[in-house]
Amino acid sequence: MKVALCVRPDRPDAVRAARDAAARMRKAGHEVVDVNLDTPSAGAGAKGATIACILGGDGTMLRAARAMSPLGIPLLGVNLGRLGFLTTITIDDLDSAIADV
After folding, report:
1. In the prediction, which pLDDT does 85 show?
2. In which domain, by residue range, is 55 found?
3. Residues 10, 13, 34, 58: which is the catalytic one?
4. Which end of the chain, C or N, has fewer beta carbons within 10 A?
């Protein structure tokens, strides 16, 4: 499965979590592409992805939804923020959530 991993590059904790998550996904046999949400063409990097995995808070999820909407792929929000209304998966549950897709 091709996974678009979306993270804000200005959040060091999210970048570290994304690096670790990408390594685990690759080890499980998934193709992972990194998507920089700070670029105007963020969605272009996710072309052909089966799912977009967004690591961050609700704001990051909204930014990713805007960028990914033309692609029509499902979004999986991983909560690294404070509230987590839109990002319901925890980083500890990420592996099992990806396996369920």
Report:
1. 80
2. 2-100
3. 58
4. C
